[in-house]
Design a protein that fits this description.
The protein is an alpha+beta fold and 141 residues long. The protein has helices spanning 24-41, 46-51, 124-131, and strands at 5-10, 54-65, 74-83, 88-97, 102-114, 119-120. Strand 3 and strand 4 form a beta hairpin. The longest helix is centred in the N-terminal third of the chain and has 18 residues, at 24-41. It is elongated.
Length: 141
Amino acid sequence: MSEPFSVPVTVRGYETDTQGHLNQAVYLNYAEHARWSLLRAAGIRQADLVARGVGPVALETTIRFRRELLAGDEVEVTCAFEWGEGKTFRIVQLIRKTDGTVAAEIEAVGGLMDLEARKLVADPAQRLKELASAPALFETR
């Protein structure tokens, strides 16, 4: 089992709230950035998905805030897909400071929608791996 895919992010001042903490909604932006970065690293662009008539959809997201993040903090945002048997999958993510402190845990349930039928595809793992030039990036968990 390899380490999850990750991307570095530096907390920007304009992303903080009146207490100086990273605004709660920005955690979702960081998670989404890591997800799209993983797809891009696997060789899948948004245009590729649209051309194949599919698109990822978020069905549920849970964030557990563990430690505060402040402007200037440098973090890594991980992203690992967990495939099941059905039409949905889980994405497990951590936002971790450079000292290893976990600032947030994010778990999401997603699917891959057929854009014409407006329904989830039956085997999202297989569909994404077929599109990918580096499908091993989807096998970290």
